[in-house]
Specification:
Blueprint lengths: L3 H37 L1 H4 L6 E5 L3 E5 L8 E6 L3 E8 L2 E7 L6 E7 L3 E5 L3 E2 L34 E22 L2 E28 L2 E14 L2 E4 L5 E4 L2 E13 L9 E8 L2 E7 L9 H4 L2 E17 L3 E17 L9 E2 L4 E12 L1
Parallel strand pairs: 4-8
Antiparallel strand pairs: 1-4, 1-7, 2-3, 4-5, 5-6, 9-10, 9-19, 9-20, 10-11, 10-12, 11-14, 12-13, 14-15, 14-16, 15-17, 16-17, 17-18, 18-20
């Protein structure tokens, strides 16, 4: 057996070893615990980048391959479409949209004037930290680069519907014959109608795009309730009706030339033509002519093709239009019997109208 001092030294050495091992074991457990917290807790604490969303506020917005009006159009977005944007480059947001063949998502640029920001704020495409350093104070100043044109405030397309007011005049010509002692004699009379009333319309814009031109389809309903009827007859005219009405409708093909503008107002002159039908009624009140048939009142049915010339002035949410039209081809029928004789249509009808209309854009 060793001495008591030697035994005490061995016991102390064994105790130190036990304490050292327990310390190492505790350090390992602490390290593993910190590692577990890092793996499972830290990812939850890291905030995901915010999702930025914009909503289209015009009828049709163009998505371009590059940030600028020179960029090729690769897709379209209609009013109300919500898109995700990740960056901003000048006046353009880079957004994601479904490709035209509906097979995959593509990235493109949309002008900020055609959308509204509804969530988040896109990061600039070139953040300040990546911008080139400023030129030294003693370096020559660089000429300012003019900004790119702002382009059209809204896209030309979609639907327009509203009401209008206008005045119209029609001249119909009639022929009847009388069998007299020396043979049959043919007589002619011309009726001149004037009516003022209201118009309701709906128009599909850019039904077909023909280069810079747009082919639109327009439908109208007309109601005239003010005006009278005169008899155009040599040697002097006569008034044959103080009042009457006019009801009609037409379908027009309209060829427009939209002119882009950065002022917030767009201008589109146009030419239109198409079939038109009117029922012209006269009450015969105030008849100053000798034929009693006029005092009874009568109706004339007119089918015509007019030529229309006008212009639309587009604002952000509505459109104002001015138009003049002139009838070039027409045919008419009537229930009137002039002087008791059968009356039929005679060539030479004409007509004109002037309209002002106001419509909402959709």
């Amino acid at each position: 057996m060793g001495s008591p001092a030697s035994e005490r030294s061995q016991v102390a050495t064994g105790a130190d070893n036990i304490v050292r091992k327990e310390g190492v074991l505790a350090f390992k457990k602490c390290f593993l615990g910190i590692l577990a917290v890092s793996v499972f807790i830290l990812p939850w604490g890291m905030a995901a980048p915010p999702v930025v969303k914009v909503r289209v506020i015009v009828a049709v917005a163009n998505i371009r391959a590059e940030a600028g009006y020179a960029g090729a159009i690769i897709a379209h977005a209609t009013k109300g479409t919500v898109l995700e944007a990740d960056t901003q480059q000048g006046e353009w947001y880079r957004v994601k949209i479904l490709s035209t063949d509906k097979t995959n998502m593509i990235s493109g640029f949309i002008n900020i004037s055609t959308v509204e920001l509804i969530q988040g704020q896109p990061a600039p495409l070139n953040p300040p930290s990546l911008q080139p350093p400023a030129a030294p104070a003693d370096s020559p100043a660089r000429p300012a680069v003019p900004p790119a044109p702002a382009g059209p405030p809204t896209a030309y397309g979609g639907w327009t519907a509203g009401v209008g007011a206008g005045t119209m005049s029609y001249m119909t010509s009639w022929e009847y014959s009388v069998l007299e002692d020396y043979g049959r004699t043919y007589y002619h009379r011309w009726h001149l109608f004037s009516r003022t009333g209201l118009t309701g319309f709906a128009e599909k814009r850019q039904l077909l795009k023909l280069g810079p031109l747009a082919l639109n389809l327009r439908g109208e309903v007309h109601l005239g309730f003010l005006g009278g009827t005169d008899l155009d007859l040599e040697p002097a005219d006569a008034h044959i009706s103080d009042g009457g009405s006019a009801f009609g409708f037409d379908v027009l093909l309209k060829l427009a030339y939209p002119i882009p503008s950065s002022s917030g107002v767009a201008f589109a002159p146009y030419f239109a033509t198409g079939p038109q039908y009117y029922i012209l009624s006269s009450n015969g009140v105030g008849n100053e002519f000798y034929d009693a048939e006029y005092s009874k009142g009568w109706t004339e049915n007119v089918i015509a093709i007019p030529l229309c010339f006008g212009a639309d002035i587009d604002f952000k949410g509505f459109s104002l239009g001015l138009e003049y039209r002139h009838v070039i081809v027409a045919y008419a029928s009537t229930d009137l019997e002039v002087s008791g004789y059968e009356t039929w249509f005679y060539a030479g009808q004409s007509g004109s109208a002037f309209h002002v209309h106001l419509g909402l854009r959709f």
